[in-house]
Amino acid sequence: VLFLFCAALTEHKILFLSSSYQRLTDACRALLALMFPLKYSFTYVPILPAQLLEVLSTPTPFIIGVHSIFQSETQELLDVVIADLDGGTVNVPECVHISLLPEPLLQQTREALSMVLDPELEVADLAFPPSTISASSLKMQDKEIRAVFLRLFAQLLQGYRWCLHIIRIHPEPVIRFH
Where is the UDENN domain positioned along the sequence (predicted)? Predict the structure, then answer.
């Protein structure tokens, strides 16, 4: 998930494959939800019809879902990150380089996500673990995952004001983010 998240943030082409239309839609929507407060401004098609498969050759970034019966048509795509939802794999071509998060943030995010998704890990090394470990409900787990990624954005974008430049050429000053 973090690999796909970084690929979406760095404007790569992402293709989801699955035999379930519901899973395709959920995966595409989940990736966009994790990017909050940013908005994805490129091509977004949760379920691509078979007649439009040539769209996958576009030079612009995208997040697209395709039914797995068309997997053979996607094999010749050289610059597309392919996430097989049925097999649970992410295939990154050799010519694609995805920049991951900076190291302290990457490890913190992995640990926070593992604590949300598998709370038993938190007490696994304790000599006397508590007798009951309550797992969060799905609704609460969704909020906890969103909070992990929102905290990540807060850490990534802290100090953004140092990147603002005021240009005074125009009658009114223009603020530019660099």
Answer: 1-178
**Domains of the chain and CATH, by start:** 1-91 (3.40.50.11500), 101-123+133-177 (no CATH)
The residue assigned the tokens 């401004």 is 41
Output DSSP code: residue 144.
H
Euclidean distance between CA atoms 143 and 107, whole angstroms: 20
pLDDT at 122 over 80: no
The token duo for 133 is 């470990």
The model carries a pTM of 0.80
pLDDT of residue 177: 79
Q: How many helices (H) and strands (E) does the chain have?
A: 5, 7
**Torsion of the alpha carbons at 45, 51, 56 and 60, rounded to the nearest 10:** -60
Q: Which two tokens stand for residue 43?
A: 């091509």
